[in-house]
Amino acid sequence: MLEGRVYSHWMIMEKGLDFIRSQKKGQPYFAYFSITPVHADLDYPDMSQYLGKFPEKPYINKNGKGGFKTQMSPKAAHASMVAEIDNSVERIISLLKEREEWENTIFIFSSDNGAHMVGGHNPKFFDSNGPFRGYKRDLYEGGVRTPFIISWPKYIKEHRKTPHISAFWDFLPTICDIIDVEVPEGVNGISYLPTLLGKNNRQSKHEYIYFEFYEGNGKQSIMKDGWKLVRLNTSKPEITIEELYYLPDDIGEEENLIKANNNKVKELKKLMGKAHTKSDIFNW
Questions:
Q1: What is the pTM assigned to this prediction?
Q2: What are the distances in angstroms from CA 148 to CA 22, 68, 110, 254?
Q3: Do residues 176 and 189 lie in contact, with contact meaning Cβ atoms separated by under 8 Å?
Q4: What is d(CA 216, CA 233) in angstroms, rounded to the nearest whole number?
Q5: DSSP state, residue 2
Q6: How confident is residue 62, by pLDDT bands cut at 50, 70 and 90?
Q7: What are 228's strand-pairing partners?
Q8: Of 24 and 65, more confident
C-alpha cells in the first residue's frame, strides 16, 4: 500500500493500461508492467474470496518496525495476490484484442526470481517451486529458475516447451534481433529468436550459465552440459561447501556427486574463475 491508501499494483495497472490506450494503432510501442505481487508484504485489500479456505498460521511482526507487516491470514493473502495477477494479465490481453493488436503483439510473462519464503509465506503449502530445491536468494534451481512464457500469435502457432537454456541477459539481444537493431557493445547475451520461431538448428547456446550472490556468506553456481556446481560460504574459505549435481537425472538437486567426479569439479571451478569479475564494490 502506498502511504496506506493506494494498492500499488492497481496504480501500476491503470497507468500501464492508459499508456496502451494512448498509443496510435498500428504503430509499435513497448509497455512494461512492473507488477509487485506476490512479493512480500503479503497484503491485499480484499481477501474475502480466500479467507477461511486454508489452515492459517499468522505472521506477526513483533517489534512493529522494519521487516514485513503482520498478516493474520498469509495463505489467503498469497492466493488473493496470485488471483490478482491472473486478472491483471487477462485485462492486458483483453485490451490488446480490443485494439486488434493481439495477433502481432509479443507478450511476455516472467518473474525475477524463484518463490520466496518471507513475510509468512509457506511455499511448500502451495508447492510454489514444484520439484525444484531452494527459494529466492538460493542458487539452487528453485531460486534461479523462473517461469518465462511468450505469446506471439503471428509467429508462434502452437503451445510448446523448449529445452533451450537462457538467462535474463539474453532478453536484450533477442529484442534487438526482433526489431533489427544492433546489440549494444559489452552485452553477453544470446538471442533466442530462432527458438521462438521454431528454428532450433540455428540457435546458438551458452557455453555455461554462471551466477554469484553476495548475501549469506557468498554463493556461486555454474551449469554446463547438465552439470551444476554450487559453492556456498565463499567468503569464508575455512567453511566453504561445494556440491555437484547432474540436472538431467536430478532436477531437485538431491544427490551430491562431488566425491566421484573430481575432474568435472576442476573443469567447472576453472570456468567459475573465468566468469567471475573481481570488484571493490561487491566482494566476498
A1: 0.91
A2: 27, 28, 5, 24
A3: no
A4: 7
A5: B
A6: confident
A7: 223, 245
A8: 24
